[in-house]
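User: Second chain of the day. Same drill as before.
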Amino acid sequence: MPELAIPYRVETALERGIEGRGLAREDALRLLEEGPLEALLTTAAAVRDRSKGDSVSYSRKVFIPLTHLCRDYCGYCTFRADPQAGVQPYMLPDEVLAVAEAGRKAGCKEALFSLGDQPERIFPEAKEFLKKLGFGRTLEYLAAMSELVLETTGLLPHSNPGVMNGEDLRRLRETNVSVGLMLESASPRLLRVGGAHWKAPDKVPSLRIRTIENAGQLSMAFTTGVLIGIGETPEERVDALLAIRAAHGKYGHVQEVIVQPFRAKPDIRMAQAPEPSTEDLERTIAVARLIFGGEMNIQSPPNLLSEDYPDLLRAGINDWGGISPVTKDFINPEAAWPQISSLAARSAGVGFMLRERLAIYPEFGSRPEFVSARLQPHLRKLQSENGYAREGV
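Assistant: Same format as last time:
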C-alpha cells in the first residue's frame, strides 16, 4: 500500500519544528491535530537528541504530603480532603522529619513537599491547628518545615503548594532549590459548573501564570506543565504550552515542563471521563518538545503509562521526574513508581542512559543567581562536577 503524502502545510510545520526554534500557535495546533504520528515523533526526538543526547534523567525523592486539606474541589483529584474527625489536619514536625530521614537513608536527595491550596481560608480546623503551632498560614508552616528538613537531613526541598505571591516565594527561596506549580490548563472555561475546575478558585489560569512569573522575577528554578484530558480543546492545550513558553521567555527560569495525562479513579467526580490515549499523550509531548525546542527539559511520569512507559522517550521527553524508593505517589496512589533499577534497564533497552539529577537541573544549579547563598553549601554536598547528583552520597 503506497505511503500517504503528508499535506504541504503539515510538512512545512514539521520543517519549522525540526529547526528547533519553537513553533507558532498555528503550526503547533496543526501538528497536534493532523501531523502523521511517526513523522511527528521522529521530528521531536531529533530535536531532543541534538540538545540532550542519549541521557534521560530522574530525581530520587521522598514525598512529604504536608496536608491533604485543600480549598479547591477539582474533578480529578484524590489527593485533597476535607477535615475529618480523628485525623490531624497537617503532618507534625517530627512526622515530617521521620519521612525525610527515611528518604535520606534510602539515598534520596530531594524532599518533595506536596499540599493542598490555602486550606486555612475555608476550614477553621486548619486555621486553629496552624495557630497552635505558631503559624497564620499554611505557606508559613511549609517554609518552616522546608528549613527543618534542609538543616536536619540535608535533603534539598522542592515544594508544590499551589498559588503563591511574591512574598511566599521569597520565603521559600531560602530553603527550596526549586518550586513547582502545574498550570494544568489555560482555559477559564473549565471553571464553569461541572467542569474539571468547578469550585476550584485557585485554578484560575491568570493566577497560576502570575505565580510562574513571580518566581521568574525572583530567579527561582521552576517546574510546571499541563494536565491533558480534563476537558480542554486542542486549542486550549496548545495555548497552555504557549503561556508557559511566554513566561519562560521573559525570565528564563522554567527548568522543566511536565505533560501529564488525566487518569480516571473510582472516587472522583470525573470517574467516568475518558482518559487520553497513549497516542494523544505522545502527540502532546512531541508538540511540547517542538514548541519549547531542544534545550527545555520535558517530563512525563512513567507510572502513569504502566509497562509501556519507555515509548514516551520516542516522543521527545528527556526526564522521568521524581521517583521514590520510600513513599508512594500520593497524587496517583494507584500507580506505583517503577523500581529505579528497572527504570534504568528499560531506558537502556531503548538506547538511553539513566542519570540521577537533583531537584534543580544542572543548568540552573550551576548559576548562583538561581540558588540562595544559604542553599549553596547544601547543594554542593550533593552535586557532582557535571551538575548531576553526586554518586555514593
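Strands lie at 55-67, 110-115, 156-160, 178-180, 222-228, 254-261, 298-299, 319-323, 353-357.

User: Great, on to the next one.
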